[in-house]
Amino acid sequence: MDTPLKFGDVLRTRLGPPTGVRSLSSSPRSQVWRVELPDTAGDGLRPAVVKHLVDGPGADERYAREVAALGIAARAQVPVVPRLLATDPEQRVLVLDHLDHRTPAPDWIVPYAEALARLHATAGPRDAGLLPRWQGPGTADIASFLALAVTLGAVVPGGASGELEALVHRLDRAPGHALLHGDPCPGNDLHTVEGVRFVDFEQASLGSGVMELAYLRMGFPTCWCVTSAAEPLLARAEAAYRAAWRAATGSEPEEDRLVDACAGWLIRGDALVQRAHRDGTDHLARVPDEDWTWGTASARQRLVHRLGVVGGLTAGDSRLGAVHALTVSMRDRMLIRWPALLPVPTRRP
Prior knowledge:
The chain is α+β, with helices and mostly antiparallel strands. Helix content is 37%, strand content 15%. Strands 1-2-3-5-4 form a five-stranded antiparallel β-sheet, with helices on both faces. It has a two-stranded antiparallel ribbon with strand order 6-9. It has a two-stranded antiparallel sheet with strand order 7-8. α3 runs parallel beside α8 and α5 crosses α11. The radius of gyration is 21 Å and the shape is globular.
């Protein structure tokens, strides 16, 4: 059922009266509409998107993050976000250009990665304080992950706990002032004729761009739509990210941190459930007794995929040797216990 459009006097004075109003699908945290607005360049109409962040915990912060992130991202020489046309802070409403999304090509992660690098590169040290710093896993995540390993009957090397503690410390201190989307998932990327554009910046933060480059290998860990790309395609996408980052910043991305970023996503139980369920529950502890489906994959499918990725990346890593042995053992135990588990999908729906 369509919901009443939020478009008050502030926006009407700035943009004119909206027509052709149509509700669009959105998360429970927002209402979104497609509208037609008077075209300032002539007598016609232009499509736009109106987004209202509904009342609820953290709504004001999410609105502020989105507006700030869109302002930073607008600096990109090649656009990476829709143009922000107007805002109404009192109503938590923003109006954006409407962009037509096309069906992504089979190798969609390559232009996605290139656009992600350009997005990340729009922020810098001068933006400190405009958005929160990215938050990684903590000691509670380590404890839950190791407890799951014991429950699965995996071999837990003596050095695993210390390596994971050092990992969390490195992630917490990771340098960088990149503009991080916060949820750069399929559905939050629009594949247009002009290129990829990102939307929905309610979780935006500042930090190391490698934390989101890791999404490609980890199967988009905060997303409903899990996909696993073949190694040659991953290599192309990561090369595209590096090239776009160099072109925008004149520096090299911190690739040595990619393994750390992937391992960090692995141990986060909250990355097994949608945002509404990230409420402090120990979701890793649920895995031995239940397997819930979210989007395109189940919790156990997600975890087996992530264990395989980190197990492969940490082979021969001097800092994560015990973690390598642990992840290999955990994955083996899961596949023995649940032999019918299927790999995560290779294509986005």
